[in-house]
Amino acid sequence: MTEATTTNGARPTVALVHGAFADSSGWDDVVAQLLADGVGVRAVSNPLRGITHDAAYVASALSQIEGPVLAVGHSYGGAVITNAALRAGNVVGLVYVAGFAPDEGETLQDIESDSKDSVLTTALLQWSYPTGDSGTQTEFAIDPDRFHDAFASDVSEERARVMAATQRPISALGFGEPTAAPAWKSLPSWAVIPTGDRAAGSDVLRTMAARAGATVTEAEGSHVIMVSQPQVVTAVVRQALQAVSA
């Protein structure tokens, strides 16, 4: 695995993009395991300001990584890499970790409305923030009292409280802006689907992964499976690396 190279002679770098209500620290154990394999890893901060803004930012970050990139997105980060990968120009594969893989014109709020497994919309708090141009925008966070049940049910209550206290809110534009041409239509993809995902909803994750033609791995766990079971996520990333390498 550590010797894998792409056809142009460069080893793929794994770029990890976190989702809403989180930050890059959720990838810590996955990063450690990949680094131990000798794999190049980059965690990309996701601004969480909306699909258009975030995809432009992440595409720029990915394009500045030398050589080919395997883009890995958790949750909302999956929607971001769906919109950013083709613009970056060097992405050779996609891995969705409890991740949204929307089609062109779809919004995440429309996708979530079809889920029977998700309780996220009932667990959100909202408020307004200034945009800097004399306007305001709505953003969402998860009610700390609902965080463990809705987002991270398979981590300890103590850890869930820490995650809730340090969560990053997301702009409403993240849920309401439509997706552009999706990268999964032209790039190979893999999906890790937690069977107990009550945030994105295991049901809609399965539907999106099937539509994308992704290689699917299901595992018992919550929406934050990269925190509770990093070995499962790392194994899928290794599988994807092997497929897009050599």
TrEMBL record:
Q: Where is the organism placed in the taxonomic lineage, from the top?
A: Bacteria, Bacillati, Actinomycetota, Actinomycetes, Geodermatophilales
Q: Which GO terms describe its molecular function?
A: catalytic activity
Q: Which domain of life is it from?
A: Bacteria
Protein name, as recorded:
Pimeloyl-ACP methyl ester carboxylesterase
Spell out the PANTHER family in the cross-references.
AB HYDROLASE-1 DOMAIN-CONTAINING PROTEIN-RELATED, ESTERASE_LIPASE_THIOESTERASE DOMAIN-CONTAINING PROTEIN
Record domain AB hydrolase-1: where? 16-235
Instruction: Note the coiled coil stretches, chain numbering.
Output: none
